[in-house]
Amino acid sequence: MTETEVTHLQGFNQRTVVVDDISVAGTHEPFVEHVSFTAPRGEVTVVPTDPGIPQVALALAIGGRVELMRGRIRVGAGSDLADLQLRTRLVDVADVTAPEDTIAVKAVVEEELALAEKPAGRAAVAAFLEAHDLSDRATRPWEQLPAGVRTSLLLELGALHPMVRVLVLAGPERHGGDQTVWLETCRRLAETGLAVIVLTAAATAASLPADLASADDTAHDTADDTAYDTAVDTADEPDEADPAADADEPNLPKEPSA
């Protein structure tokens, strides 16, 4: 294998998401089952998913927050829960990472900056809001921002963490509003090299531009897997470790919004 090929697959190693025939157990039947897709770095991948609990369960699975009933998920070389938790950011997942509607805009920004391990003091929050022309709305309830703006802000804030390689946006259609706003943000963040996964209802997925990758278009190739595994062995490039990550604690507590 040439040095160029190894370098290319090292990029795959760090940021491409492979979801291989996964199911997540529910109370009486699986919340999601037999889901497979590949989300390449630098692209927005749309995965049609039933609203509500199925979207939440699939997001938690991709982010390494729940055990799988079957199948496997990996972000590059990492497939254990700690790796998935380290490299993914779950964006606006209902009842998990979604901010509460009544919290002030500035409080949401402060919380998200802190989660991204960025300065989150008064000056940093004010600078972020000013850069987004939202200084005059700092004390307003989060729900008073337009839906597309709220989703876009959460995407941008989620991408700030230095170890994040994957953004998982769950159910943006539930807020209504203009979907082109958050979609443009997804595209822009993907252009930075992130893998951006959008879990959305089938009707919404069908209405999105045809140039986006979809789960049906991204079933992964076992030949690519073989080349990938060979490149990882050849390159011998270890993944960064997070000493705080705990692979024995798969269920991530709800992240507070303020």
Task: Describe this structure as you would to a colleague.
The protein is an alpha/beta fold and 258 residues long. It has nine helices and eight strands. The strands form two sheets. A five-stranded parallel beta sheet has the order 5-6-7-3-8, sandwiched between helices. It has a three-stranded antiparallel beta sheet with strand order 2-1-4. α7 links the parallel β6 and β7. α1 packs across α9 and α4 packs across α5. The protein is globular and about 50 Å long. It starts with a helix and ends in a 23-residue tail after the last helix.
Keywords for this entry:
alpha/beta, about 260 residues, about 35% helix, single chain, about 15% strand, disordered C terminus, five-stranded parallel sheet, three-stranded antiparallel sheet
What's this entry about, in short?
This protein is an alpha/beta fold and 258 residues long. It has nine helices and eight strands.
